[in-house]
Design a protein that fits this description.
Length: 555
């Protein structure tokens, strides 16, 4: 630091050397935070100031995203509290885009004062951090410790440091943007590759919405298709999926779909891109987020929409051809459906009878024998007198305890105990056990659920139990999620992971989901599995909270 005994020549040489060192450090810096801290320290040193700071604007320039100080200890920073909001002299630097020098902060009309705990400051020198016509923040120093105030030389040096700071900030943003664009390109390529492998429209919609939501890191993604003059959402993914699917879009054009979704989902923003094929609009790709969308997300949605539009058109053409072929064999399909319905009903009845028989056998063979033994010992004890009775009674109590334990085990196999406290509790318990049993982190996201019939709760529990077991044993995933959402009397459960995935068409019985799939069908629900090698797995169950009764029972 230059002192009063330094000659002007020595002080200038010291400053020049410091700026040269900073230039080298900027070229070699890998961490923008460390670089900005060095610049703040250098600004305080070369201007002989007590305090210095650098404020970095957020991307849209509406507020301070980071604030680096020099000369302020950690305790003082904690007392001051929140970051500056960019008002007063700090805001003036950014708005006026020029150097501001003030001899007395308190008397300047632009000053808004200091928050509680802030150290007092007198004179002030600040310049905007700008590069290529864009403002990235400000750098300023206060309380010059020698002389009457900051000089023109101090201003020129601070402008030089501001240029260094602009280069550092812009460089960091460019590196971040480059990495993000690479990530986005890889994500778009992955989604495009996945959807090119299927002509089944439900599988296509499930795959696109699930993977697009993960890529954009947003709340909900859906694909709306124009049908009968309306834009309908056959499938969406995320906490607001069912609300999006139930959206009334009569008389709504694609161009106004985003605003319509935002009205239906308050406190959310919507990004909508038209799906067009051959100049014909067939729907829209919609993303919903609690915050705003940036240009990167907009570009990703725009690029994806063209790929999705082509894939949807191909899937619809394939579906139309398949419907034509099915119309030629309606009678055969009806016969097969009737036979399948009879087989399913028979299998359900047999399963119920088998379950009842198993419970009866266990009650007879285990609990019945134990209770018989207790009865015999009681008869023997009636005729006994003496100290041996105490020992016999202890043994008898142990038998009773064993009988109780056996009964509890039977009841637990008949209905999971965790379900007694509700489906939400049971699902969270499953997730907790999965977290403890493997290296996979399982998160649970759950919307408020309506009252759910006992058999439906049991089916959802069994599907989740089997799926999380497969995640722990086979997937190699590091993250998994269980998402439960509901609208009116409809419940959806999604279990997804980022593991190795598999070929759905080639999957075998080792997944253990064939049994639970039959249970889902018995309660009138549907189970869908989407996966591909290296892209994780998603299992989606849709079911009514209370299954519909057969016509003869309902009457």
């Amino acid at each position: 630091m230059a002192t009063s005994s330094d000659s002007p020549h020595d002080a200038e040489a010291s400053r020049t050397a410091l700026l040269a060192d900073l230039g080298v450090a900027l070229a070699e810096a890998g961490n923008v935070g460390e670089m900005l801290q060095r610049l703040a320290d250098a600004a305080r040193e070369v201007s002989n100031a007590r305090y210095a700071a650098i404020g970095v604007l957020n991307r849209d320039g509406t507020g301070i995203a980071d604030f680096i100080t020099s000369g302020v200890d950690e305790q003082t920073r904690e007392r001051i509290g929140d970051l500056p909001a960019g008002r007063g002299l700090l805001g003036a630097i950014i708005n006026e885009k020029k150097l501001i020098r003030v001899d007395d902060i308190a008397s300047d009309p632009r000053s808004v004062g200091f928050p509680p705990g802030h150290p007092p400051m007198s004179n002030f020198l600040g310049v905007p951090i700008r590069l290529a016509g864009r403002t990235y923040g400000n750098i300023y120093v206060t309380d010059r410790q020698q002389g009457d105030g900051f000089s023109d030389d101090d201003g020129r040096l601070l402008e030089t440091l501001a240029a260094y700071a602009a280069i550092a900030i812009r460089g960091a943003q460019l590196r971040e943007e480059r990495l993000r664009w690479i990530e986005g390109l890889e994500g778009v390529c992955g989604i495009s590759g996945a959807i090119s492998r299927t002509l089944d429209l439900p599988d296509l919609l499930s795959e696109v919405t699930r993977r697009t939501r993960a890529l954009l890191d947003c709340d909900t993604v859906g694909i709306g298709l124009e049908t009968d003059g309306m834009i309908r959402f056959p499938f969406a993914h995320g906490p607001n999926a069912l609300r999006l699917e139930a959206l009334d879009t009569r008389d709504i054009e694609v161009s106004s779909l985003g605003a319509h979704v935002e009205r239906a989902l308050p406190d959310h923003n919507c990004l909508a891109a038209e799906l067009a094929v051959g100049g014909r609009s067939i729907g829209a790709l919609v993303a919903v987020c609690g915050g705003g969308f940036d240009s990167w997300q907009q570009s990703v949605v725009d690029v994806l929409s063209s790929h999705v539009a082509t894939a949807v058109a191909n899937a619809e053409q394939f579906a139309e051809e398949r419907r034509r072929l099915l119309e030629q064999s309606d009678r055969r399909v009806e016969e097969l459906e009737a036979r399948l319905s009879r087989e399913v009903q028979a299998r359900a009845l047999l399963a119920q009878e088998d379950e009842r028989a198993r419970v009866a056998r266990e009650l007879h063979d285990e609990t019945g024998q134990l209770l018989t033994g207790v009865n015999l010992r009681l008869k023997a004890l009636v005729s006994r007198v003496g100290p041996e009775a105490a020992t016999e009674l202890s043994e008898l109590q142990e038998h009773v305890k064993n009988a109780q334990d056996s009964m509890r085990q039977i009841l637990r196999r008949l209905r999971p105990v965790d379900l007694e406290r509700g489906l939400g509790h049971a699902i969270r318990e499953l997730a907790q056990r999965a977290n403890e049993a493997s290296d996979c982190e399982v998160n649970v996201q759950m919307a408020p659920l309506p009252p759910i019939a006992g058999e439906v709760e049991l089916v959802l529990f069994r599907v989740c139990q089997e799926a999380l077991t497969n995640v722990a044993r086979h997937s190699g995933a590091s993250h998994a999620a269980v998402v439960l959402t509901a609208l009116d009397q409809r419940v959806r459960m999604t279990i997804e992971d980022d593991g190795v995935g598999f070929d759905v068409e080639a999957r075998t019985g080792r997944l253990g989901l064939s049994g639970v799939a039959e249970r889902v069908e018995l309660v009138g629900g549907t189970l869908r599995i989407t996966s591909s090698p290296g892209a994780g797995t998603a299992i989606v169950v849709d079911v009514a909270a209370a299954p519909l009764l057969p016509e003869e029972e309902a009457s």
